[in-house]
Each structure stands twice: as C-alpha cells, then as structure tokens.
Amino acid sequence: MAANAYVRARIDSSIKDSATVVLDSLGLTPSDVIRMVMTRIAHDKALPIELTRPNARTIAAMEEARAIKSGKGKTFDTAGELLSSLEGRKLAE
Fold it and tell me: Which residue segments constitute the domains of the chain, with CATH numbers given?
C-alpha cells in the first residue's frame, strides 16, 4: 500500500525529544510508530491502548492513598480499632 497521506500533530518538544531517543534505540522513527498505530487502529477498529475512567471505588482508594502519602490519612491507636474500621468498610460495601 502506498503511503500517500500526511498526518500532522502538535506535541511538546521535550516529549518528542524523549520519545525519539527511545524510538531510535528501537530502530524506529516517529513516522514508523504513527504508521504502526494508525494501521492497528484501522485493522482492530479500536485504540491499541486501554483508556478507562476509574470508578467511584477506585477514585476513593486513590484519594485515600494520596491522603496517607501526605500524612493526612486516618490513624488508629490499636489493632482493634483498625480491624473495626475494616469490618465497617466490608459491611458498607
């Protein structure tokens, strides 16, 4: 199949430069990868990567992880308090 169409995209130059280094190490050019991805999309009728939105439970877990990381997470004085909290979560789910 002849390559007779152009695809143009604007991208941050630092991202392009970083990606080009990786592609060079693989013996590929940005154009090679764009052709490969576009061919895959046309063939599979889908993106070659999974794009999903996290559900409410995952979002809550991510927010809790951020709170813990920043030192604002819930703390417990005893193992019993921790277990009670976990059991309460199981009942709520």
Answer: 1-51 (1.10.1220.10), 56-92 (no CATH)
Q: Residue 16 in contact with residue 30, Cβ under 8 Å?
A: yes
- Sequence-distant (6+) residues with CB within 8 A of 6 are none
Structure tokens at 21: 């280094």
User: Is the separation of the CB atoms in 23 and 30 below 8 Å?
Assistant: yes
Reported as a single tens digit per residue, the pLDDT across 17-67 is 999 999 999 999 999 999 999 999 999 999 998 888 899 999 999 998 999
**Between the CA of residue 62 and those of 10, 30, 75, what are the distances in Å?**
31, 34, 17
Q: Would you say 62 and 54 are in contact if contact means Cβ atoms under 8 Å apart?
A: yes
